[in-house]
Amino acid sequence: MPEQPEQPEQPVRDALTETLAHQVAEKLADVQGPYFGQFGGRYVPEALIAALDELETEFRKAQGDPGFAAELSRLHRDYTGRPSPLTEVPRFAAHIAGPAADGTAPVRVFLKREDLNHTGSHKINNVLGQALLVKRMGKTRVIAETGAGQHGVATATAAALLGLECVVYMGEEDTRRQALNVARMELLGATVVPVAIGTRTLKDAINEALRDWVTNVDHTHYLLGTVTGPHPFPEMVREFHRIIGEEAREQVLERVGRLPDAVAACVGGGSNALGLFNAFLDDAEVALYGFEAGGEGIESGRHAARFSGGAPGVLHGARSYLLQDDDGQTRPSHSVSAGLDYPSVGPAHSWLHDMGRATYEPVTDAEAMDAFRLLCRTEGIIPAIESAHALAGALRVGRRLVDAGESDQVLLINLSGRGDKDVATAARWFGLLDEGTTEGDQ
Amino acid sequence: MSRTVTTSQTAARLDVLAGTGRAALVGYLPVGFPDVARSVEAVTTMVDAGVDVVEIGVPYTDPVMDGPVIQRAAEAALAAGARVRDVLTVVEAVAEHSGGTVPALVMSYYNPVLRYGVESFARDLAAAGGAGMITPDLIPDEAVEWSAAADAHGLDKVYLVAPSSTPERLRLTAQASRGFVYAASTMGVTGARQAVGRRAEELVAATRAAGAARVCVGLGVSTGDQAAEVGRYADGVIVGSVLVRTLLSEEPWAARLDTLGKVTGELAAGVARARTTGGVS
After folding, report:
1. Contacts of B145 in chain A (CB under 8 A)
2. Pairwise CA distance, residues A62 & A133, whole Å
3. Quick one: pLDDT at residue B188?
4. Which of chain A's termini has less CB crowding within 10 Å, N or C?
5. What are the Cα distances from residue B169, in Å, to A182, B37, B141?
6. Which of B123, B124, B177, B187 is the best residue to mutate to test the A interface, defined by the most A CB atoms within 10 Å of its own CB?
7. Are B196 and B221 in contact (CB under 8 A)?
């Protein structure tokens, strides 16, 4: 086990009592920031507070404006291609367990196909919502961080669509590993800035984006890509992704006539997971599973499993579970999947974890890659390696249910992204490439 | 508002200097660069060369308010094994070296302090003779725990204001601060700049109008002339990157200390002439 330093006692927050009292009255799905239980907040320089306030005000105004909802719906339908389909995957599900005595499958598996969205992942939902807010605020420039490039590509896409200047910060290490996605962003008119400090990955790209934002905040919006960061980002990004769960809930009801027994998603920052979970948070009978990157295994210390190997702390503006050492220094994360390779997690997930509403488990690189190949071969769908963590975790959950004697189970998985970007990584993993081939977009 | 302790080492020092007609020079260096022992030498060199208040930085993996110079020093300090508790060693050394005349403030991002334990950190900092803490990513709204610990141990709470702060936030921050309010001269991160803008003077005036008794200005001050300009209207001139840069050179250590002393001396001279000549050298 990596060192598990003793955690200082959690502070008693006076304002928290009030916030909690307020939250008790609400549905879990509608809880507003800045706090999710003891998590969240605004741990940022004062210089950013005015911009965060402006953003929150604009967001609340937009929430109450039918014109905003109509414009976003139009883009979802005509540009992104929503609603995304729900696909049942029986050949994949057969690998959970063989048919029961009466010939029926004990576990039916459905995939929410966010991989079929324009730009290839769920990221576009949030990006379009924020980009419309940027226009309303009269700002002309957006900046974003990206790891694997999915959020960067989505942001560059929305910026092109709406005529905004776009700068994407990306760890130098990642620009090398994801050269093709760098080219994609540049084709879309964005400037990609390699970040050559710290770990040279996603965490440091966020630091650099925050430095840019502090400097240029009067005309620049930081288009943050997940449910982390200072308030209002965790709540706002959840709101822009809640369409995933709302559609899926309706689609499952229509297809099987009842709610799913379990819902699964991968969790990096946690936006695809929260978007899907949100529609089921207040249905106590639906089990929720988030799968984090277990990397080479928790015991190896090389992972991004914040709930298994981290402790509450503050990073990038929010209090949440965090990989850190005895001194509160951020520990580097590791995952075969760049999109899950982040040392913290959205504060709402920490809240759901601590209250026991959702269960978070690590999935190793090897388990994820096995599930990746299984979906390719059984269903003809190449998933993002991020999403393959959810597939692997769902196989585990399904087998557990069958072992416990359950039958007639319905499992819903968020297929958050497509795997085109991961072909080179997968080919190397499975030994399909000649040694020395490094070309490609990982 | 109830306070267990109302005296502030830093406020007392600023008031004494104000009585002699000048602002304070506040100098920043990180602990542990290039190692703990030499960072003590650097801080005491800075004190001997005329710094009135010291600010000792805790190196952190994710310093979002810092520009490249301080980032590089922090990264090197961490690589060399600097620990959070080492800041207490430097604080003690300053108190000893200056006979308690130079207040030592810690500048730390919040997570290292949170992990140490906020109350434990306040207790140990006070025991080491520290004056308080500057918190670049902790705003008063989130500082209930730190504020209580600082009050209990008589430590300064130095929060930041920025040109983007609304009058309402200036009032909130002025009220929550003890020692002084740190006015960021410009929108941006630490590092030398060509000029300290007019916005800094406006911000100091607005912060005073919002109720702050003492306002020091940081970000971008790197020359004696800039120090003289800021020292004309602020209670203190905060300097960091230009000092850290002297230690990042490839020169032998003794030569680096020598340069640090000279640069500090020029800044101190700038502050000293600020109100006698209107800042013109």
Report:
1. 11-13
2. 8
3. 87
4. N
5. 40, 40, 10
6. B187
7. yes
* A365 and A223 fall within a common domain: no
Q: Which of A195, A212, A214, A327 to mutate to test the interface with B (most CBs of B within 10 A)?
A: A327
Establish if A25 belongs to a structural domain: no
Q: What residue segments make up the domains of chain B, in order of their start?
A: 23-272
Mean pLDDT of A84-101: 94
Helix, strand or coil for residue B263?
A: helix
A267: nearest Cα among A239, A249, A288, A251: A288
DSSP track, B197-211: -HHHHHHHHHHHHTT
Kindly report, residue by residue over B211-230, the tens digit of the pLDDT: 999 999 999 899 999 999 99
Go through chain A and tell me how many residues it has.
442
| In a shared domain, residues A203 and A277 | no
CATH topology of domain B23-272: TIM Barrel (3.20.20)
Q: What pLDDT is attached to residue A22?
A: 57
Q: What average pLDDT does range A94-100 have in this prediction?
A: 91
Q: Are A218 and A188 contacting, i.e. CB atoms less than 8 angstroms apart?
A: no
pLDDT tens-digit series, residues B120-130: 999 999 999 99
Sequence-distant (6+) residues with CB within 8 A of A414 are A111, A112, A114, A122, A244, A248, A263, A264, A265, A266, A272, A273, A275, A276, A387, A390
Neighbour count for residue A254 (Cβ, 10 Å): 9
Convert the pLDDT of each residue in A373-397 to its tens digit: 999 999 999 999 999 999 999 999 9
Domain shared by A282 and A344, yes or no: yes
Closest-CA distance of chain A to residue B94, Å? 23
Q: Could you tell me if A402 and A278 lie in one domain?
A: yes
Least reliable range by pLDDT among A9-23, A235-249, B72-86, B182-196? A9-23
Q: How many CA atoms lie within 13 A of A99 on its CB side?
A: 6
Select from A234, A261, A277 the last residue of a domain. A234
Interior/surface letters B241-261, b for 16+ CB within 10 angstroms, e for the rest: bbbbbbbbeeeeeeebbebbb
Query: How many other CB atoms are there within 10 angstroms of residue A3's CB atom?
Result: 9
Cβ <8 Å between A43 and B142: yes
Which residue from A5, A49, A197 is facing B169, i.e. has the nearest CB? A49
Per the domain annotation, does A27 fall within a domain? Answer: no
- Which chain A positions have a beta carbon within 8 Å of B68's beta carbon? 197
Q: Are residues A287 and A348 both part of a single domain?
A: yes
- B115 with A9: Cβ contact below 8 A: no
Last residue within a domain, chosen from A234, A259, A275: A234
Domain CATH code at residue A97: 3.40.50.1100
Contact B78, B59 (CB under 8 A): yes
Contact, A117 vs A158, CB < 8 A?
no
Q: What is the domain extent for residue A224? A: 37-76+123-234
Active-site annotation holder among A145, A235, A247, A386: A145
ipTM of this predicted complex? Answer: 0.95
Number of neighbouring beta carbons within 10 Å of residue A10: 11
Tell me if residue A145 is catalytic: yes
User: Do A67 and A154 fall within a single domain?
Assistant: yes
Angle formed at CA B119 by CA B113 and CA B122, multiple of 5 degrees: 70
Structural domain total, chain A: 2
Cα–Cα separations (whole angstroms), residue B129 to B57, B115, B126, B147, B183: 16, 21, 5, 18, 25
Under 8 Å between Cβ of A360 and A290: yes
* A60 Cβ contact partners less than 8 Å away, ≥ 6 residues apart: none
The answer to whether position A11 is within a domain reads: no
Contact between A92 and A378 under an 8 Å Cβ cutoff? The reply is: yes
Cβ of A11 and B165 within 8 Å?
no
Active-site residue set of B: 55, 66
Residue A224 sits at φ, ψ, to 5 deg, of -70, 140
